[in-house]
Amino acid sequence: MNDSHAPEPEAELARLRAELDHVDGRLLDDVRDRLDVISRIADLKQRHAIPVMQPARMQQVHERAADYAHRNGLSTEFLHDLYALLIGEACRVEDRLVDGADPSEHQDLADIGENRN
């Protein structure tokens, strides 16, 4: 029996896609915000001669992601891979800023992410 009050599949799909687009927008904003914090960390490291590479910190971030995955029924492998990408980009941004870009120039983070080798 057909429920006459149920939304048509196309309308429901459009609504769900709009919801997903909203979530994706927040995700992208969070990635941008993360890179902004990373640029401030790079500035601090540069000013105080702190090494860019912090293996203990990277391990801590991966462990926190794995704990989150376990608590929320998510794939630990997926979150490990996701954080490997995020950490890789963080290291690349920090290296670029510490090795010569002047953080006071307020360089657009989109420009930092352009060169993918």
Q: Which terms would index this structure?
A:
mainly alpha; 72% helix; elongated; disordered C terminus
- Mean of the pLDDT scores? 85
Estimate the strand proportion: under 5%
Number of DSSP strand runs: 0
Intertermini distance: 57 Å
Shape: elongated
- The helix content, as a percent range, equals over 70%
Helical element count?
Answer: 4
Low-confidence stretches: 102-117
Order of helices and strands: HHHH
Structural class: mainly alpha
Main sheet record: none
Rg, alpha carbons? 20 Å
How is this structure best summarized?
The protein has 117 residues and is mainly α. The chain has four helices and no strands.
Task: Describe the protein.
- The protein is mostly helical and 117 residues long.
- It is built from four helices and no strands.
- The protein is elongated.
Q: How is the secondary structure organized here?
A:
Elements: H1 9-47, H2 55-72, H3 76-98, H4 109-112
Helix pairs in contact: 1-3, 2-3
